[in-house]
Amino acid sequence: MEREAGSRRSPAKRAAIVRAALELFLDEGYARVSMDAIAARAGVGKQTVYSHFGNKERLFLAVVGEARTAASATPADASPPGRTGDPRADLQAVGERLLRVVLSPAVAALHRLTVAELTHHPELQESWRETSSDALLAEVADHLTAADRAGTLRVPDPLLAARQFVLLMATEGRVRSLHGTRPLSDAERRGIARESADLIVRAHRT
Amino acid sequence: MEREAGSRRSPAKRAAIVRAALELFLDEGYARVSMDAIAARAGVGKQTVYSHFGNKERLFLAVVGEARTAASATPADASPPGRTGDPRADLQAVGERLLRVVLSPAVAALHRLTVAELTHHPELQESWRETSSDALLAEVADHLTAADRAGTLRVPDPLLAARQFVLLMATEGRVRSLHGTRPLSDAERRGIARESADLIVRAHRT
Amino acid sequence: MEREAGSRRSPAKRAAIVRAALELFLDEGYARVSMDAIAARAGVGKQTVYSHFGNKERLFLAVVGEARTAASATPADASPPGRTGDPRADLQAVGERLLRVVLSPAVAALHRLTVAELTHHPELQESWRETSSDALLAEVADHLTAADRAGTLRVPDPLLAARQFVLLMATEGRVRSLHGTRPLSDAERRGIARESADLIVRAHRT
Amino acid sequence: MEREAGSRRSPAKRAAIVRAALELFLDEGYARVSMDAIAARAGVGKQTVYSHFGNKERLFLAVVGEARTAASATPADASPPGRTGDPRADLQAVGERLLRVVLSPAVAALHRLTVAELTHHPELQESWRETSSDALLAEVADHLTAADRAGTLRVPDPLLAARQFVLLMATEGRVRSLHGTRPLSDAERRGIARESADLIVRAHRT
DNA sequence: TATGAATGAGACTTCATTCAT
DNA sequence: AATGAATGAAGTCTCATTCAT
Nearest residue to E10, CA vs C1'? Predict the structure, then answer.
């Protein structure tokens, strides 16, 4: 029935359900996960799941929504490395951090899941954005703006350049890691970040 | 039972099954498609499906495999436009063709399906390669090599540059079209191709 | 737990529950109505329903019992039309009133519900009587007795005749209205009352 | 999927399902019967039930439809008693036969079930007719026509009179037997038939 | 007392697969 | 070889009832 706030429904159980559902959805995909399995893993009755979320689809959307939110918040936790003044090195550093996040098992699985279910749950499309992390995108743009001001690069449209950098690097990472399925070595990650940073820097050299 | 070649199994029925299965898998995803539905759409009995492919997973892998092969062969459908000598214009032209292919409903759906099922069918991973079209990649590399020889660009590693171009553009197209879920206007496609071509050309300007 | 009278249980809530339950049972039938739905429509908690009535069956019997009582009391709502002295006209007039009552949505639904659940709730059988309205039956008998006294008819057993009249007319009305499911026009009702009155009058003509 | 004629679906299993479903529906009512129970009693798998009838409602309608047909065909099996020439006796004899049919457990339960489910299955309404047996109605009308010709009665509208006779008698029988729930003694049945026949005969006496 | 969260059983329906024709 | 009827397990969701607040 899904009542309003103020109900006595246990937030702890809700959290357990969300966690269990997320793990299962990420591992198995939407259709392969049963409500029974979610309830069992969460350690609650099936009806508890239904009274919290109404049905499987709403549970799925809630879970994915919260996971997206969490994922967007996470990457900035690593302290942003200070600027060295060398745009190429700065970009590569940011890129390596981004790759670690994007290719982490959870984030990669969330990405696969979202792509997989895009056509079946139109609500997903509204929340869809390739760069799960606008914060990181802004950080890259900042670097480029700074370089432009310092005269080391000439970047007329820093946001576009940042987007191209992030998109290219993330995609290359996904392709090489079989969409996060196979772990990447540090060297591979570094290589990918270097190649992408190189392209961007060369394109905007003065 | 799956007999050897030379059996009396009808190739026409096999083709009908593959076609039906592909359509359904692309539309619904692996788990949501039933063998019943496949047999019905193919106009054959269920046992025929089983005798041809053994089980659902083998059918899926066969179908996706053939679809990938077909998709890789297709893109050259449009006669490759002659070179104009202007690298930017040439790249953009190739790019627009590529986008049309990559974002076509069938190719985009095949991509989503592959990503979705990557973890459940390890065999898929072996066939995985982002650029479904090596032919096109080679064509881009050719353009770049020609430009390098002509002295209009300086491209030390044409294959890398080509790959970056294709990857960036395809990804930008996918993001903007919600992974092929929403059609892109000609103008959008042109814009994406232009931006990507621009980046590559600027990065390799002499 | 069901406490005795004098408890602190609110009669207002009890009434709300009974009203809600009656509406739902009449619309859906016993098995299709959930205690959840009753509590929700009554605007009370589920446990309140249980503490008032113990379980679903007892609630049902109480509700139907009260509804039968109410229905039996109602029919005289319209002031009984004075006698005209013409037995046929009088009978027909009474009959039309009866039909309106018997085929009213609530009374018809109560009748269907009782018939439907007769075998599952033996207590219902005790309260069963076709003529939900003894008052009306007596009124018809009165008319006939009066006619007998006046010499316009010869009615040795007025109660039997009244019963036959009421039963035949009510049944004909039920059949033609699909057991109260389809509304009857005034003309139809009048026709049914006329035919039935005619039969009775002819059978007892002097 | 419910295919056309010519399929290989076993008619024996279909019949077993129909029989099992009818018994259960008559005993318990629509909502209380589970498809599991039907399959189990029929001795077939649940999917067999579904492949034959598609879903619970279609099964129900098919079962009720066939039962109605069967019930309509049955009553004439008892050899229609020859006419004695005494309309009252003839009518009473036909009436007793009718009562036996109408109050037989199966027919009475079918009637209760139909009334109970009338609002939930609109298709039922189309097949609804109080007199499950048009044959019997015709037989009564024949008696009355014959009497009219013989001059023993004056029956301007034999079909109306027959209908009134049948309706009144069946209803009285239903009321007295708690809608077929309680068996009626021979004497009761005879009494009901006599009273009804009496009414009709008196109404049409010359 | 009254609330509604929680439960375990069970509802209808569909699935991948096998069997009999 | 090919058909589709049949199966048993499992899917989503709802139920009457109880428990903790």
Answer: D34
